[in-house]
Write a structure and sequence with these properties.
This protein has 72 residues and is an all-alpha fold. Helix content is 92%, strand content 0%. The longest helix has 35 residues. The protein is rod-shaped, with a radius of gyration of 16 Å.
Length: 72
């Protein structure tokens, strides 16, 4: 049971990491597009919820891994 918790946590962490990389890619793409300051700010604000969600997912996954290791 605890081994499954570790693997599920690892999968969540990887999914969160993919989301973080994707949000970094979106902001870098917006910066390369030479947008105005207002448009760049809007692009970053649009990516912010994804960034925070991915970070939360990654943290939850890492917590599951730590709990699974501690209890297993």
């Amino acid at each position: 049971m605890f081994e499954a918790m570790i693997w599920i946590g690892a999968a969540l962490s990887v999914a969160g990491l993919v989301g973080l990389v994707w949000s970094i890619w979106k902001v870098a793409k917006a910066r390369r597009a030479k947008l105005s300051d207002e448009e760049l700010r809007a692009a970053v604000q649009a990516v912010l919820p994804l960034n925070l969600g991915a970070l939360f997912l990654s943290v939850i996954g890492l917590m599951l891994v730590m709990v699974g290791i501690s209890l297993g």
